[in-house]
Structures are given as C-alpha cells and as structure tokens.
Amino acid sequence: MSGKNVTEVRLADLAGIAEAARILESGGLVAVPTETVYGLAARADSADAVAKIYAAKGRPDFNPLIVHVAGLAQAERYAQVLPEARALAQANWPGPLTMVLPRRADAGLATAVSAGLPTIALRAPAHPVMQALLERLDFPLAAPSANRSGFISPTTPAHVLASLDGRIAMVLDGGACPAGVESTIVAVRADGSVEELRPGPLQLGTRGGGESIEAPGQLASHYAPGKPVRLNAAAAAADEFLIGFGAVEGDITLSASGNLDEAASRLYAALHEAATAPQPRIAVAPVPDEGVGRAINDRLRRAAA
Ligand code: TXA
Ligand code: MG
User: What are the recorded Gene Ontology BP terms (predicted)?
Assistant: First the structure.
C-alpha cells in the first residue's frame, strides 16, 4: 500500500466544482463528467499538467488529446475556425462533436496536447458540470477518456476508479454520463471538406475514410475488457457472459426494446460488468449498424480485436 495516493470522489455541487477548479489551476488531474464519458482533465496550457495525463493513463505520446472549450469564441484562440467549422459549431455546440482544425501558431497551449501535430481537436461539451467548470477557468481543459490507455471507457465514477484509483487527485461525481459513447470526431480540411474520423452520438451524414489511423487513438485494439469478445452472437456458449440487445436476451441487455440511444448509454457499463463476471468469455448480440449503432459497433469491434 505504501506510496499509494488517495483519489477523492466529490459530488459535483458548487463546493465540489470549486475544489476541482483549485486542483486544475494548480496543475493537477481531475476526472470530470461529460455528456459522453468521464474525461481526465488537466489545464491544456501547461506542459507539466498535460504530461501528467499521459503518465496517469499510460497513454502513448503520439496519441493527441481533445481540448475542451467553453464555446466558439474560445475555440478561435487556438484554431483556425473555417466557415464550415463555424457552421458545424453553431449547429452542434455545446455537444458531442469534436472538430480537428488547423492549430494556430500562437495557440499558447502545451505542444504535447496535440502530440506535435499541426492540428488540434476541440470540443465544447454540453454537460452542465463541465460547462460550469470551463466558465470559471481561464484556460481550456485537455481531457481524454478517464481510463488507463486501451481499457474500457468510464461512464460512472466507479468506472473511473476501476482503472485510475490512486493515480489522480479527484473524481467529480456528476452521475452517469447520458450519451455513453465518445464524441463524434470530424476533421475540417482547409478546402472546407469534412471527414468523419470517429463515429459517435452525433450523425452528420459524412462517412469516414474507413480505418484511417489519422485519429491516432483509433488503434485496432481498445476498450479491452481483458477477455475474449465474440460479436454478433445469437446465444451464449456455456462459458460466455452474453450482452443482449433487442430479441437476444442475454445475462444483461443493452436495450430490451432495441433502442440504440439506450444501448449506447449502457454500452460501457455492460462491458465493465462483463469484465468482472465469472465467465471467462464475453459474447455480444448483433446491434444494427445505423445511427449511434455505428459508434457502438466501432467500439465493440475494437473491444474484440
Ligand atoms: O467524448 C469524448 O470525446 C471524450 C470526452 C472526455 O470529451 N474524450 C475522448 O478522448 O474520447 P480520447 O482521448 O479518448 O479520444 C480522443 C481522440 C483520439 O482518437 C485521438 O487520436 C483523437 O481524438 N485526436 C485528438 N487530437 C487529434 C488531432 N489533432 N488529429 C486527429 N485526431 C486527434
Ligand atoms: Mg479514450
């Protein structure tokens, strides 16, 4: 036990948010609720603070972070916001949309935040706790998902503790994240074209360029529950924990009624439960590849890889 630090879980009331702000101002790490998943936040303008994120997650240094801003005005300080990007922000921020944009030379943020790339990923989150936090800070927050690199993403404070307990100062408890899968990421090119780099809760009608490694975090194996995962299963084998959907019942279900939004909101909790179940293997029922189902299948494929 020696040398193990304590991670405090605090309710995201006014006092909790004030304490989180104090820790962030002094360069510490706080896990914060967003509408998608819990993020592991640090001040994006400090190289030391950003380095702590990579260390706590065990994240490879070539995998850049998303910088969270209060809104469009703050985004303009760090990136060249092209007209197409401005229109997307006006229509979808605050919300689960991350835009990869040309990084401004005078951004004044840690180089490591975008892993030395000429671009930067920006998102204005809709969660009221994150908004309250960003409004009282005079810097933006770098925040990847609050899990050890490669493991299952967190949608509750307990999920955060499952992999980061003792590695971070505090978890700000805002309850379960409503959307449940990470933001949709798009790159907005200099010519105004928009390419989807990661499917998410928001459907923009732009299909991605396939398995592009351009969002370097989109590695084949990710979200791994530490057991073999079999997809498109109609029934469980004797040694499998089955995650159901619709007519496939399972040990637990993503959505008995076949509702994809509900399935997305339960996806990571189901994988966390499957990871700790006695069965040595996991099977997952088929999920339709439409709407947010594309994001669910994307994450399931990586969990199975
Ligand atoms: O919903 C979300 O996006 C959550 C919450 C906390 O906001 N965050 C999240 O962060 O999912 P993370 O680090 O788990 O995923 C960020 C993704 C990675 O795939 C990374 O490679 C990509 O964004 N990314 C970041 N900056 C990029 C850039 N400049 N160019 C391309 N991809 C970038
Ligand atoms: Mg992640």
Answer: regulation of translational fidelity; tRNA processing
